[in-house]
């Protein structure tokens, strides 16, 4: 029979670790000064971490681009179900992400500001939008190379109309 | 090159539907083989019986053999247009024909198979004399007995060109001898020849100051030496009909008889030509007639009072005597003028038939006279038969033979009516009839039929008892089982029943896809037909009435046919036929006939005329017609121009008048003006000036200053049809905008006095007269035979390219495809279809053209038409090889690249240019039918966008349907509908079975979770 021997843990080594987020030390009300100082340290590092994570999120679409480009390359130029699926994904995800940009960045918002406001984390959000537009551009470029963009006059030919001629010829 | 062509052919296989499946033959198409209306005006070309076959030469220049029992064509031989048949004769086992100017060519055919056994040119066609009628001075005489020792061969005597008699061995074609008159036809026209075993007599006439003189030359049958030659002063009026040469039955005694100032004179012919002229005294005659019995010594003479006598050359006394007079043969109100015709009975004895129309009985009466020479008497047996004169016109020619042993019952009559119907009557029964005027269709249109109407009987419901109601509803439901079976079959197999079966015989209504339409065709023999396009049956036919000209006689020549009410306008469709009536007193009138397409009824008639009555027209202009147009208005008013360029409107109702007046300022049309050889094209508009005329007048607005020797041959309007796309999209998605000028007209001209002679094709704007495209074409051997068709922005023309001196080109048939696009560059547009023609921009056009070598000549060409114009237009051509082909647009694309197509060009489905169009049997849509001498191809849309109906007329009639881009709007035949239906049924049963199981399972799950 084995026993877990917690007493052997060297607690001094871990004494200064910040408590996990959301942990409130109910037992510390007796000594309030020292924990207040410690919490100031932990909240500042916590904010930096949030910043860092927000930047990660902002740049994540750009990091996926090489993978997406490879997928596009593999799916080929034909109009098939796979290539169409990838192209649709490329075209739709930027819009979806931009629409949900505030909620996506809400967890990383600093405590001082309103979490769902557009003005929080402005730099990260701009970078995020730019990266998503990059994805969209890749998708459009793919569409263009597949001939799906109505850029030529031929694409608008069906909408052309002609009126009756002013003169009438009889045959 | 060869590899390339093979690639092309394989690419064709991959992309085209195979031209025609064997199983479709006779289902999607039909073919009517015709011979044309017999040339009955001359005995030498009129129908004759020989055993069980009727031989005739026809107005379509065909020598044909008809089976007398069932009327089918045994064989026919089609002569070239420049080689008209002038005479034929049945000669022991062969039939011999003379054709060409003056009888230049002699041909000998097998009697029963029609194989050409011998062809011999007797003189150069350019040296042939052109007389009126054209077969004057040509004649065929076969001598039964051979002059040579070889018994298998016999001798043909051919009188040609009015001056030459040639003796030809019928099996080898060797000329035994030839005699030509000393004056070579300049003065004396030799028009008849007659033989005895030793001597041949050639009889001719020459016109002297006031009358004619006869010339007779006797030749030895052995070597053609002239034995004697005399002039006989004869005083007859008409050189063609007023003298005949006869031999008695034994062929030893011959004589000539002529009409000399009311009396018949005759001279007996002896080799030394010495003898007396004697006359039949005491009688006054006005006509003598050869009835085809000149070898049996009998002919007909019409007395001054019109009564007909049979005259006989008596072999004993070598004199003429009257042996019979037909009773009641003088003209009378009770019966029409009589036809007299000779024939032989089974034993070779001569018989003369008299056929006339009796106004008393309203039947045709025939009498057959047989002479009992031994007793010096004759007997007549007669019969009547119910010829439908209101359907077939009057009897124009009669031929007969006595096939049976009994003279009265075994007599067969072959009637040719004035409307071109050929009928064989045996006693009073019609054995068969052929509508040969269909070989002379002038105008034809395909008209859509309405959908089958539910025949609603107006039943007064409140007055109806219970049992009556039940019985009525049962009788209404009598077709239900059949309908259910049809529905089940259609649902299970997806195949519609063939249209000819699904329709019940009586109703005239369309099938599901609109393949069944009415072909309205007007012929030059004064008859208009409604033909069922699904099987070629004649739905109705009407004789076009002559109006006041019925008194003097005349012909009605169809000029234009307009569909003036279609199914989409509601009610029964109607057509209006514009004709020119030429009365025999040279007056020309413009007459309009207005018909119901489904029944052939006259729309104009107030009361419904009894069906089968002659259709009377409406004399709209008492004078010739210059041109007729249909206005693009709601009522489809027809505008006619008389010789003073006054505008007449049909129908002449106030609404039509108002419609015309509203449109008049913007109407433009072009007319051909000037005499033959210097015809010009002039644009016209209409104006109303009350001091000039009570009608609107047309006045010229433009003309094209062609060189004086340039003659406008034809004006080809753009073929109508809806348009789906205004441009052509290239591979890089730029657009070539189609040049869709609605006033575009193709004009073919010839300048034959140029050196070298040339033909030209112009595309004109019909409003402003500006030339949009012009191309000069060499005139092969001085003839402009250019065929062209214009549809949308696509012009195709065909010509024969002669070898040009020094250019190194080879001769051959060429087809040129020209496509017109707006502006000078890609993506440039000028909106050509709605800008005014006077705009400077309207002439900004780029023409792309490619010329192709065709391995065959073309007789006619046109493009397919479909309902909405989405389907590609293919070119339908009638080749001189007597078949109909459908050439895909892809092959005729004028933008086919000269190099290997790039990717973008491949995207446009362009194939590399190959000058030679493949002579591919899969392009043929006419199966193995012979569709000869095509005049015109008519195409019409069906209700399926993919499918176009094609009707070809000429000598033969042919109808088929084509799908240029495959039948994309119906399920393909190899689609397995049974499998689909079974799968669905299986799934449905699976659901039905498993649903309660599933429900129970779910319920149990909730209890015992």
Secondary-structure map:
The complex is a heterodimer of chains A (171) and B (1009).
Chain A: H1 33-75, H2 81-99, H3 101-105, H4 122-146, E1 168-169
Helix pairs in contact in A: 1-2, 1-4, 2-4
Chain B: H1 2-15, E1 30-32, E2 48-50, E3 53-57, E4 62-67, E5 73-78, E6 85-91, E7 94-99, E8 105-110, E9 116-121, E10 139-143, E11 155-160, E12 164-169, E13 175-180, E14 188-195, E15 199-207, E16 212-220, E17 226-233, E18 243-247, E19 254-260, E20 263-269, E21 277-279, E22 285-289, E23 298-303, E24 308-314, E25 319-325, E26 339-344, E27 350-358, E28 363-372, E29 377-385, H2 389-392, E30 395-402, E31 411-417, E32 421-426, E33 429-435, E34 441-448, H3 466-476, H4 480-493, H5 499-502, E35 517-523, E36 527-532, E37 538-543, E38 554-565, E39 574-583, E40 588-596, E41 618-621, E42 625-630, E43 638-642, E44 647-650, H6 654-663, E45 667-673, E46 680-687, E47 697-703, E48 711-717, E49 727-729, E50 735-737, E51 744-751, E52 758-765, E53 771-778, E54 787-791, E55 794-801, E56 812-822, E57 845-854, E58 858-863, E59 875-879, E60 884-887, H7 903-907, E61 936-941, E62 948-953, E63 957-962, H8 977-1007
Antiparallel strand pairs in B: 1-63, 2-3, 3-4, 4-5, 6-7, 7-8, 8-9, 10-11, 11-12, 12-13, 14-15, 15-16, 16-17, 18-19, 19-20, 20-21, 22-23, 23-24, 24-25, 26-27, 27-28, 28-29, 30-31, 31-32, 32-33, 34-35, 35-36, 36-37, 38-39, 39-40, 40-41, 42-43, 43-44, 45-46, 46-47, 48-51, 49-50, 51-52, 52-53, 54-55, ...
Organism (chain B): Serpula lacrymans var. lacrymans (strain S7.3) (Dry rot fungus)
Transmembrane segments (chain B): 980-998
GO biological process, one term (chain B): protein folding in endoplasmic reticulum
């Amino acid at each position: 029979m084995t026993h877990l021997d917690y007493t052997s843990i060297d607690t001094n080594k871990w004494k200064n670790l910040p408590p996990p987020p959301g942990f409130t030390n109910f037992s510390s009300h007796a000594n309030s000064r020292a924990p207040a100082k410690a919490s100031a340290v932990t909240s500042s590092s916590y904010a930096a971490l949030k910043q860092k994570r927000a930047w990660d999120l902002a740049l994540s679409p750009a990091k996926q681009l090489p993978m997406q480009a490879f997928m596009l390359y593999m799916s080929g130029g034909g109009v098939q179900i796979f290539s169409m699926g990838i192209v649709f994904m490329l075209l739709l995800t930027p819009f979806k992400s931009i629409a949900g940009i505030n909620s996506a960045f809400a967890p990383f918002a600093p405590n001082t500001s309103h979490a769902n406001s557009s003005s929080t984390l402005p730099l990260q959000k701009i970078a995020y939008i730019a990266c998503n537009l990059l994805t969209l551009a890749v998708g459009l470029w793919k569409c263009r190379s597949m001939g799906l963009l109505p850029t030529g006059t031929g694409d608008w030919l069906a909408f052309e109309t002609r009126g009756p001629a002013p003169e009438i010829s009889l045959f | 090159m060869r590899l390339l062509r093979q690639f092309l052919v394989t690419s064709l296989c991959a992309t085209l539907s195979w031209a025609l499946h064997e199983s479709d033959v006779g289902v999607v198409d039909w073919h009517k083989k015709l011979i044309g209306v017999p040339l009955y005006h001359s005995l030498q070309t009129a129908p004759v019986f020989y055993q069980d076959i009727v031989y005739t030469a026809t107005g379509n220049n065909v020598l044909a053999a008809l089976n007398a029992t069932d009327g089918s064509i045994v064989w026919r031989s089609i002569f070239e247009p420049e080689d008209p048949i002038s005479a034929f004769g049945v000669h022991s086992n062969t039939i011999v024909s003379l054709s060409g100017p003056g009888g230049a060519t002699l041909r000998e055919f097998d009697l029963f198979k029609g194989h050409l056994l011998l062809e011999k040119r007797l003189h150069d066609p350019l040296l042939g004399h052109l007389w009126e009628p054209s077969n004057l001075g040509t004649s065929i005489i076969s001598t039964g007995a051979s002059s040579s020792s070889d018994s298998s061969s016999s001798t043909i005597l051919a009188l040609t060109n009015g001056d030459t008699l040639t003796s030809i061995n019928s099996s080898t074609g060797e000329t035994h001898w030839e005699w030509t008159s000393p004056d070579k036809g300049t003065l004396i026209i030799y028009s008849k020849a007659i033989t005895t075993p030793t001597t041949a007599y050639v009889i001719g006439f020459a016109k002297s100051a006031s009358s004619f003189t006869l010339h007779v030359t006797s030749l030895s049958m052995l070597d053609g030496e002239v034995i004697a030659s005399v002039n006989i002063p004869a005083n007859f009026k008409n050189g063609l009909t007023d003298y005949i040469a006869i031999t008695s039955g034994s062929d030893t005694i011959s004589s000539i008889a002529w009409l000399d100032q009311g009396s018949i004179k005759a001279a007996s012919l002896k080799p030394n030509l010495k003898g007396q002229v004697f006359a039949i005294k005491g009688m006054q005659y006005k006509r003598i007639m050869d009835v085809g019995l000149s070898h049996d010594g009998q002919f007909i003479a019409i007395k001054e009072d019109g009564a007909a006598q049979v005259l006989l050359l008596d072999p004993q006394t070598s004199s003429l005597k009257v042996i019979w007079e037909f009773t009641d043969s003088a003209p009378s109100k009770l019966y029409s003028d009589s036809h007299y015709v000779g024939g032989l009975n089974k034993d070779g004895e001569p018989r003369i038939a008299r056929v006339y129309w009796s106004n008393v009985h309203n039947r045709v009466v025939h009498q057959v006279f047989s002479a009992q020479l031994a007793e010096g008497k004759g007997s007549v047996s007669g019969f009547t038969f119910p010829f439908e004169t209101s359907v077939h016109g009057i009897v124009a020619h009669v031929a007969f033979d006595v096939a049976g042993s009994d003279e009265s019952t075994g007599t067969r009559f072959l009637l040719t009516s004035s409307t071109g119907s050929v009928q064989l009557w045996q006693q009073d029964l019609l054995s068969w009839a052929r509508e040969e005027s269909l070989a002379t269709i002038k105008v034809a249109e395909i008209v859509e039929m309405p959908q089958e109407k539910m025949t609603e009987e107006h039943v007064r419901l409140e007055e109806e008892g219970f049992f009556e109601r039940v019985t009525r509803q049962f009788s209404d439901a009598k077709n239900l089982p059949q309908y259910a079976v049809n529905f089940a079959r259609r649902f299970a197999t997806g195949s519609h029943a063939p249209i000819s079966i699904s329709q019940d015989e009586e109703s005239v209504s369309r099938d599901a896809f609109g393949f069944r339409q009415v072909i309205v065709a007007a012929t030059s023999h004064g008859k208009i037909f409604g033909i069922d396009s699904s099987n070629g049956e004649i739905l109705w036919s009407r004789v076009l009435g002559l109006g006041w000209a019925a008194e003097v006689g005349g012909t009605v020549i169809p000029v234009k046919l307009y569909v003036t009410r279609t199914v989409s306008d509601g009610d029964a469709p109607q057509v209006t036929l514009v004709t020119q009536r030429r009365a025999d007193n040279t007056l020309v009138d413009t007459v309009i006939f207005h018909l119901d397409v489904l029944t052939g009824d006259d729309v104009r008639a107030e009361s419904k005329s009894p069906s089968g009555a002659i259709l009377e027209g409406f004399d709209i202009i008492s004078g010739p017609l210059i041109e007729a147009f249909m206005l693009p208005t709601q009522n489809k008013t027809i505008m006619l121009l008389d010789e003073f360029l006054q505008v007449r409107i049909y129908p002449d109702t106030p609404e039509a008048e108002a419609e015309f007046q509203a449109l008049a300022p913007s109407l433009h049309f072009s007319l051909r003006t000037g005499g033959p050889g210097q015809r010009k094209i002039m644009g016209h508009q209409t104006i109303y000036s009350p001091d000039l005329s009570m009608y609107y007048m047309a006045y010229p607005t433009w003309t094209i200053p062609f060189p004086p020797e340039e003659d406008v041959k034809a004006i080809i309007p753009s073929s109508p049809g809806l348009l789906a796309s205004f441009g052509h999209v290239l591979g890089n998605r730029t657009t070539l905008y189609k040049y869709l000028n609605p006033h575009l007209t193709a004009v073919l001209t010839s300048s034959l006095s140029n050196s070298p002679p040339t033909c030209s094709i112009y595309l004109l704007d019909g409003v402003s007269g500006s030339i949009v495209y012009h191309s000069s074409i060499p005139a092969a051997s001085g003839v402009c035979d250019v065929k062209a068709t214009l549809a949308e922005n696509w012009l195709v023309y065909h010509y024969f390219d002669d070898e040009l001196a020094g250019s190194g080109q080879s001769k051959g048939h060429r087809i040129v495809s020209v496509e017109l696009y707006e502006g000078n560059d890609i993506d440039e547009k000028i909106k050509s279809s709605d800008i005014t023609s006077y705009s400077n921009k309207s002439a900004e056009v780029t023409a792309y053209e490619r010329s192709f070598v065709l391995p065959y000549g073309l007789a006619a060409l046109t493009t397919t038409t479909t309902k909405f114009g989405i389907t590609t237009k293919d070119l339908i051509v009638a080749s001189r090889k007597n078949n109909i082909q459908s050439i895909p647009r892809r092959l005729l694309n004028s933008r086919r690249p000269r190099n290997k197509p790039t990717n973008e060009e491949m995207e446009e489905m362009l194939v590399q240019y190959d000058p030679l169009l493949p002579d591919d049997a899969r392009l043929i849509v006419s199966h193995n039918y012979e569709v000869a001498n095509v005049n015109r191809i008519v195409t019409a849309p069906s209700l399926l966008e993919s499918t176009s109906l094609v009707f070809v007329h000429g000598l033969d009639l042919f109808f088929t349907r084509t799908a240029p881009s495959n039948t994309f709007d119906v399920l393909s035949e190899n689609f397995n509908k049974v499998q689909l239906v079974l799968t669905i049924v299986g799934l449905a049963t699976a659901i039905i079975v498993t649903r309660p199981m599933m429900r129970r399972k779910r319920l149990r799950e909730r209890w015992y979770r």
